[in-house]
Specification:
Layout lengths: L3 E5 L2 E10 L6 H8 L14 E6 L14 E9 L10 E5 L2 E9 L6 H13 L2 E3 L4 E5 L11 E10 L1
Antiparallel strand pairs: 1-6, 2-4, 2-5, 3-4, 3-8, 6-9, 7-9, 8-9
Length: 158
Amino acid sequence: MTPRIEELPPKKLIGLHLSMSLVENRTGPLWAQFAPRIKEIGNRTSEDKISLQIYPEDYYRAFRPDKLFTKWAAVEVVDWSQVPDGLDTLELHSGLYAVFDYVGSSADPSIFQYIFNEWIPNSDYLVDDRPHFEVLGAKYKNNDPSSEEEIWIPIRPK
């Protein structure tokens, strides 16, 4: 699977976030709390949802499945003029990303094994210390083998 390389423009997000690890994955409860609130956000740029991870700087160099990171459930908005009470904002800065168009279950880790164990080492890029995220569009179906999503991995030239 060959990704497309894109320069991401800055994005404004509204959502909720939690600290978690792969061992104590709290993604389900995070989305269960955020999903009913999406309708309160009136200035969305699209119907897409964004699942975003902010990893500590050394996350991949010293990987441990119990290491904490911040997970966001969010949507992109035009501006922050309408932030509902109890929701947070995040600015996603511009930068270079490898974008993988993935079809398969979100519970299957093989795509990430491919990205980090095969594609990155054999590419002209290194993983950059910026947020990783997935765009969950109209064809996204949680844990369904026919689900479609975009996986955005921050990169920089070697």
